[in-house]
Amino acid sequence: MLRAAAAAGYEAFGYNRSEVGAKAARMDGYDVISDVEAVLTRAAGRDALIVVGVPMPAIDAVLSDVKTFAPDCVLTDVVSVKAPVAAAVQRHELGARYVGGHPMAGTSESGWAASAPDLFKNAAWAVSVDPGVHADPFRRVAQLALDCGAVVVPVLAVEHDRAVARISHLPHVLAEALAIEGANGGPLALGLAAGSFRDGTRVAATAPDLVRAICEPNATALLDVLDDTLEVLTQARDSLRANGTITELTEAGHDARTDYDDNERWFITDVRPGDHNWLTKLIDAGRSGGVLNSLD
Amino acid sequence: MLRAAAAAGYEAFGYNRSEVGAKAARMDGYDVISDVEAVLTRAAGRDALIVVGVPMPAIDAVLSDVKTFAPDCVLTDVVSVKAPVAAAVQRHELGARYVGGHPMAGTSESGWAASAPDLFKNAAWAVSVDPGVHADPFRRVAQLALDCGAVVVPVLAVEHDRAVARISHLPHVLAEALAIEGANGGPLALGLAAGSFRDGTRVAATAPDLVRAICEPNATALLDVLDDTLEVLTQARDSLRANGTITELTEAGHDARTDYDDNERWFITDVRPGDHNWLTKLIDAGRSGGVLNSLD
Known about the structure:
Family (chains A, B): Belongs to the prephenate/arogenate dehydrogenase family.
Order of helices and strands of chain A: HEHEHEHEHEEHEHHHHHHEHE
InterPro entries (chains A, B): 6-PGluconate_DH-like_C_sf, NAD(P)-bd_dom_sf, PDH_C, PDH_N, Preph/Arog_dehydrog, Prephen_DH
Oligomer: homodimer
GO molecular function (chains A, B): prephenate dehydrogenase (NAD+) activity
Protein name (chains A, B): Prephenate dehydrogenase
Pfam families (chains A, B): PDH_C, PDH_N
């Protein structure tokens, strides 16, 4: 985020609780400190837009600091779930200037060395349009996403969480299971593994604690999707056992992947933040694949 | 295969039952016809090594032609299962000069236009070392794999089939299920999908009939792995529901992916085809990750 915002011309400064992490960023010429009071006081003094980028388990501690040192700043986050963050923001009475966000981009690596200014180029960036979101903070958050090269997907927190259970959290769970089944085949199986196994297990290389921090706060939505997935797989297994075929699975799966390949963004051009019913209009547009690529 | 063998200096000629496919290859300067009797008669006259590259359901028809027109040629195949092909070869009484093969390489595309001479560079190429395999045909088949840029993984047909159920057929099944779950989330979910979903569903783009032709002949091994996978996923689901955590899954999955990343080929240097007990020695070496990168 810091690299991308700085590359886009923002006067960007940052905080990392680890002085090692902060120093690594400073060595590359970025303005990053490990003193949370100092960074938030500075943010408050400049009416900065605060972007919280920590795993869900660390949210409460960070919001508590924001409430203490910079309660009037516009606030967003890049956490992988939105409803639990929104609830935490409410608990800390920071809701008035909060607009949740989630850029759909990342790698299986972490730390300063894994960061890149072009990570968000052409990415989808979910931005909350929940009741109570105000137009001015929405504009600032959405503009930051656009300036980082992303498009803005307007979405309700709870619908975001259900969607990412399907397309982000389930891929993690299936990758872990696939990796386990492959390794159970020993060196022979792992030595024969090629592209389908490599790609299918790529995200299993993510640190286990990070996968937990991503998936567990979204347990309700993920459980629904896991139940569905177990049903799909059980049906395929039963069909293979009883009739020797997985026709239904392969045809539905191919159709689904074709839907994905054919799924095209369309640009929302007729809604401006602050217009009459703008939240409702953006919610509807986002549900049917619409994105904002400009605020004008 | 034809492109790779020709690039390696072989006098390679081919057959495709579709004249359109054969012509596409001829337009690129390759010697390919659509007359099966002519191509096999020519193969028999030159003591050619015959490589059968058809989906499992077409194997019987092809072997019947081979038995009629070129029964004394050395015979191999690149089909994704080995025990069912070996059984078919026995039925057609072609076992004496048969050595099964399976290069672990491919894309989700098919047809002449999707072929590439460097597809097998550095790939693992399973070659059968089942009882009854003779040293001379083994040498010819293994040398072809090496000349195409691959390394040879010596393996029993039944152990190959169990291994590929884990690292090739299960990835197909999980990719189909993941694609279905993603598409069920509609345009919003598909629009938010990023790298983990794209990679995890890549092979769901494969033609459904080809996925069936790959997986269904290996039903026995795939059913065992599917049962295991359902258990792993059910345990994760139950743990998430009861305790809010997927610790066990994420740690085992990460360890497994690390096993895969750390899995290194080692070169078998002390066994030559035809040596005393060479088949047994190669079976043992293959089981523990050994590969042949030379026959000398």
